[in-house]
Specification:
Arc Repressor Mutant, subunit A; alpha+beta; 7 helices; 3-stranded mixed β-sheet; disordered N terminus; 178 residues; binds zinc ion; 5 strands
Length: 178
């Protein structure tokens, strides 16, 4: 099977939101995901990933990526310190997105080469945002942070413990702001 994304039919946004929500519900059912995003640490992520057939291992090259290890199994290697010097939990959720959306088309023993032109990269980021910042919850939090017609982005950042970039994107893709 081709490792290039160019001939693979893209997953629709609705589909990705649904897959992420289903996985979130599964994690919540087994108390694997804290209600508060600020409590999301490496042990929690480890429990989540093991529950869906994966392993989480610290990488030796300070990179974060996924390797398919068997038909339904994968390992996520993670960099302890992300690009911005903070713990890169969104990058780990991004790789989990690849596991949820793209594992079937990956080859056993291979890592996913995720370059900027590969649509699967965007799909995995959408999955990560949808899992960490569910639509209904995000809409509610946004309304709570609406003051004098402006959204208090810093306040929303504090709720999700997530960077400016992903918060902005989430609000945009949910049509909360332009
Ligand atoms: Zn990727």
């Amino acid at each position: 099977m081709s490792t290039s994304g160019s001939f693979i039919k893209p997953n629709s946004r609705e589909f990705i939101e649904l897959i992420a929500m289903n996985m979130r519900h599964f994690f919540e059912k087994y108390n694997l995901l804290p209600k508060d995003s600020r409590a999301l640490d490496i042990n929690t992520l480890n429990g989540m990933i093991e529950a869906v057939g994966g392993k989480l291992i610290k990488s030796i090259d300070n990179k974060t990526y996924i390797e398919k290890t068997d038909e339904d199994a994968f390992t996520i290697y993670y960099a302890e310190i992300g690009e911005y010097g903070v713990f890169p939990y969104m990058s780990i959720l991004h790789e989990l997105g690849h596991a949820a959306l793209h594992l079937k088309e990956m080859e056993i023993g291979k890592t996913l080469d995720c370059n900027g032109k590969d649509l699967r990269h965007d799909e995995a980021w959408l999955f990560a945002r949808a899992l960490a910042m569910p639509r209904k919850n995000f809409e509610k939090v946004a309304i709570e942070h609406l003051k004098n017609g402006c959204y208090d982005i810093m306040g929303i950042i504090r709720v999700y413990n997530e960077g400016h970039f992903q918060i902005r994107l989430r609000g945009k893709e949910l049509n909360i702001w332009g």
